[in-house]
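Quick one:
INPUT:
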């Protein structure tokens, strides 16, 4: 026995130490002690980090190949389930045993005879059953989680794992809770990409500068989140409250980071071929709300930086210039030069040659201030306006109720068709390819309806906040607008106006309801009760 040489094989399924029965070092130590005790010579160690459930392990295949082509006596392993958990590899081991190769296991060896082979095969079959049963039970648990709205697996960046949530709050949870450090950056990235301020590459650099990092793994520490990972973040339905599992999309119970409309806009933008991004200046009025009255194209904005030379009074664009183009005096030597900064809004001319000219920011500011002033109510009309609001929202509520009923009926109709499709497939009246195609169609239709239903429900929840804002605007709209930040001004414009168009150097618009009622009342005293 002193002259017998053996290979040693150690294996674990994953790179995570706490998920293993014994680590590779522990297996190696136990096998080494056993070989030394029995005077066995180990000529080579084979180490693998891969599941043995399926065939095709490269290190295991190399082991059997060398065992077959050399005079090595056999293989030493910790347990049979470290060597194999599938019947295909078990058959190969049986073939090696037929050729006289020994397989020694520290946990209990099986002699190379009929009884030993039988016991080894029973042990392998038991391991195979254990793996298959564990897989079935895991799938059952996953299906139950999906029914409850919980996504199996690890959540994406922006959400906490159960372990992270426990470490952060000291409390346990089954839900996917929002990560307070990463979620705001994810939401802002969606918004910046949506308005065209950042490209994917820009999002990568911007998020890194703002402290956004990936999660630590066994293979590498946390670091910069790359372009591919950000593409997955911007296309993952998890962020608007749904999740994908095995090719199907399901409604989740976790809190969304973005709404569906924003997610969909970003998705459409990502699919645009040849789309070019620009790092845009944050203009006071959002051009996305305006359109050209001449050609229907969008509106863009640009800045002009000019200076009036104090020597020759020549006005010129001073960016990237060091001196006056006329008198050649350097900018650094200009005494009391007058610097000018203008913002212009004009048609993008993206459809055809549009002749509409631009307007200055100051003009828009003045028009909007005057228009906002017109919706301010005298205090004595506040109660009348409240009644108008109640009536208006009652009508809106009735319309939403009708829409919800129609959506629920449509959802039921699609579910019936889906059930009939499944019955046809079970009865073998429909092939799998046709079933899969229609199944995906019905799942997509149901998802769209669910999103619409959720949108209508959110509108109901926003009723009170909207009503309060209406009343606040009706009493002090002009003052609110003048003192508001640029972001707040844009919110007010979007809330009060619609159909903003630029034509003939003028801005045109209509008031949204119920503000149109206030403006159309030429003589407000007629509204007072007599």
């Amino acid at each position: 026995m002193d002259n017998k040489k053996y290979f040693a094989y150690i294996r674990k399924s994953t790179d995570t130490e706490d998920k293993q029965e014994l680590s590779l070092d522990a297996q190696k130590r136990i096998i080494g002690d056993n070989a030394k005790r029995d005077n066995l010579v180990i000529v080579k160690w084979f180490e693998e980090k891969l599941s043995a459930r399926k065939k095709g392990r490269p290190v295991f295949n190399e082991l059997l190949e060398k065992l077959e082509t050399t005079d090595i006596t056999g293989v030493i392993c910790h347990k049979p389930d470290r060597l194999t958990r599938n019947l295909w590899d078990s058959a190969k081991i049986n073939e090696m045993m037929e050729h006289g190769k020994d397989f020694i296991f520290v946990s209990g060896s099986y002699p190379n005879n009929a009884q030993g082979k039988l016991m080894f095969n029973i042990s392998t079959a038991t391991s195979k059953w254990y793996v298959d049963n564990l897989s079935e039970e895991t799938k059952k648990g996953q299906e139950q989680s999906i029914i409850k709205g919980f996504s199996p697996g690890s959540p994406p960046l922006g959400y906490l794992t159960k372990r992270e949530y426990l470490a952060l709050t000291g409390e346990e949870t089954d839900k996917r809770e929002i990560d307070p450090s990463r979620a705001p950056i994810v939401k802002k990235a969606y918004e910046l990409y949506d308005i065209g301020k950042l490209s994917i590459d820009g999002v990568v650099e911007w998020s890194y500068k703002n402290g956004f990092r990936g999660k630590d793994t066994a293979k590498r520490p946390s670091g910069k989140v790359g372009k591919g990972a950000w593409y997955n973040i911007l296309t993952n339905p998890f962020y608007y409250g749904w999740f994908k599992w095995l090719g199907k999309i399901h409604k989740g119970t976790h809190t969304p980071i973005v709404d569906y409309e924003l997610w969909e806009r970003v998705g459409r933008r990502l699919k645009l071929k040849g789309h070019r991004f620009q790092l845009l200046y944050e203009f006071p009025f959002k051009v996305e709300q305006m359109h050209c009255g001449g050609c229907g194209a969008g509106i863009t904005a640009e800045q002009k930086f000019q200076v009036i030379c104090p020597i020759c009074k020549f006005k010129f664009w001073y960016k990237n210039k060091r001196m006056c183009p006329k008198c050649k005096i350097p900018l650094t030597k200009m005494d009391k030069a007058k610097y000018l900064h203008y913002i212009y809004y004009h048609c993008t001319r993206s459809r055809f040659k549009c002749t509409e000219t631009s307007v200055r920011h100051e003009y828009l500011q003045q028009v909007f201030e005057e228009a906002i002033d017109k919706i301010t109510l005298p205090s004595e009309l506040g109660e009348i306006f409240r009644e108008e609001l109640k009536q208006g929202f009652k009508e809106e509520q009735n319309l939403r109720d009708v829409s919800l009923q129609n959506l629920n009926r449509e959802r039921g109709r699609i579910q019936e068709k889906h059930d009939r499709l499944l019955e046809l497939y079970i009865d073998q009246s429909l092939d799998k390819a046709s079933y899969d195609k229609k199944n995906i169609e019905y799942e997509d239709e149901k998802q769209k309806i669910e999103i619409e239903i959720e949108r209508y429900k959110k509108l109901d929840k926003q009723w009170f906040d909207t009503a309060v804002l209406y009343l606040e605007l009706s009493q002090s709209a002009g003052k609110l607008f003048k003192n508001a930040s640029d972001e707040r001004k844009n919110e007010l414009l979007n809330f009060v106006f619609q159909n903003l168009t630029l034509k003939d150097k003028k801005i045109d618009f209509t008031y949204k309801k119920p503000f149109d009622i206030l403006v159309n009342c030429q003589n407000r005293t007629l509204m007072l009760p007599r």
